[in-house]
Amino acid sequence: MGNITHELKTPLHSILAIAQLLRSEVDGVLNSEQRRQVEMILKNGDSLLELITHLLQYSDLESGTRRAQYEEFKPKEFLEELRLTVEPIAQKGGITIEANFGQLAGMFVSDRRLLRQAISNLISNALKFSPRGGHLALYAATLHDGSLLVEVADSGIGIPQEAQEMIFSEFYQVERTDARRYGGVGLGLTLVKTALELLGGKIELRSEVGQASLFRVTIPNAPERLKRRRILVVDADSAICLALESSFRKEGFEVECGGDADRIESRVAEFRPELIILDIRGFDASGVRALQHTTASSWGRDIPVMVMSSVDGAKERSRAFELGAADYMVKPFDLAELLARVRLQLERVTLKSVA
Ligand code: ADP
Q1: Any idea of the CA torsion for 250, 254, 260, 263, to the nearest 10 degrees?
Q2: Exposed/middle/buried for 33, CB within 10 Å: 0-12, 13-18, 19+?
Q3: I need a surface site. Which of 91, 124, 128, 203 has the fewest CB within 10 A?
Q4: 188 in contact with ligand 1, CB cutoff 6 A
Q5: Which of 275, 269, 278 is nearest to 236 (CA)?
């Protein structure tokens, strides 16, 4: 499916990019008829892109192969980011967005991508079904039980009472008497509902025709789903082990630390780490062998190996990267920097696993 996504989206992206280039008139001024034609290409291209995205997300969710990937994040940052990405679309449609995220607290555990998919579909509907000059209100709060509440309210055309249950069914669209064409194929809300079900959440709707619609989403916080990520540290220095174990555990990682680079294969087999930190001291033979052995093997080549070394030389760094190291840190290291680098590596592992 990943391939098909690419095949469908790549040519469309380039069509849209070229149309945008034409509209920007960098290569020559357009006459009014040509400008109108370019706008039509862009409008229809955007609809097609939305359609393809919806169909692909739909087949992904409906096939049942999509499992929720839980991670911890700050809901406030997550929603601010989302708001920033929709702001230009709202501006283009002459709609003002008012956001109130003041009641959001701390961290939250859920599938960020699914949540983003759900909320952004609600927002794009709110924008699509609101006239110019309309308002979109985003409200979010952390509830007493830790759940996340998100409301998307618009001042749009509203949804008749009798259609309010049906709109969550696949391919359902409310019949409109107005002349405007809204596009879409009736999959957006099906996707929202399926994604929320996967996260144990729910959605409620209140709407009045010609006035407003309000979609209220509640998603449970799921810290118990958080897979503690495993880091194997190969370091013979017991003081370093003590320091790393304590700070990594505080950050929510599972960690195992010890020397003996020659036993790396069996330690990986037992502990199944997602990341290895390997101390190769002054480019010792046993350290280099362990690095080579891991990155070239079937059991280790997908696990990033961060090398820790006492030598700070360009030659050694290049040699380590040539041997497949994912990162290179010099001892004595700064703990905060190490943690940041560890997070970056783990983030890449996550991205790879969902790609
Ligand atoms: P579509 O991609 O066709 O918009 P959806 O599943 O997202 O499909 O929505 C189904 C139908 O529900 C839409 O066709 C529209 O009639 C109605 N609808 C959804 N959101 C809104 C909204 N915010 N305001 C008015 N009508 C809405």
Answers
A1: -170
A2: exposed
A3: 91
A4: yes
A5: 278
Rounded distance from Cα 284 to ligand 1 centre (Å): 64
pLDDT, average across residues 318-330:
96
- Please give the DSSP secondary-structure letter assigned to residue 332: S
pLDDT value of residue 186: 85
Q: What is the 3-state secondary structure (H, E, C) of 60-90?
A: HHHCCCCCCCCEEECHHHHHHHHHHHHHHHH
Q: pLDDT, tens digit, for every residue of 159-189?
A: 999 999 999 988 888 877 665 666 677 889 9
- Residues 76 and 98: their CA atoms lie apart, in Å, by 15
Report which protein residue has its CA nearest ligand 1's atom 7.
188
Q: Which of 56, 125, 187 to mutate to test the pocket of ligand 1 (most atoms within 8 A of CB)?
A: 125
- Rounded CA-CA distance 12/32 in Å is 24
Residue 156, class by beta-carbon neighbours within 10 Å (0-12 exposed, 13-18 middle, 19+ buried)?
buried
Pocket flag, ligand 1, residue 185 (CB < 6 Å): yes
Q: Is the pLDDT of residue 1 over 80?
A: no
Is 136's C-beta closer than 6 angstroms to any atom of ligand 1?
no
Who's near 137: CB < 8 A, 6+ residues apart? Answer: 97, 98, 99, 100, 151, 152, 153, 154
Does 38 or 284 have the greater pLDDT score?
38
| 173 Cβ closer than 6 Å to some ligand 1 atom | yes
Per-residue pLDDT at 99 exceeds 90? yes
Give the per-residue pLDDT at 354: 59
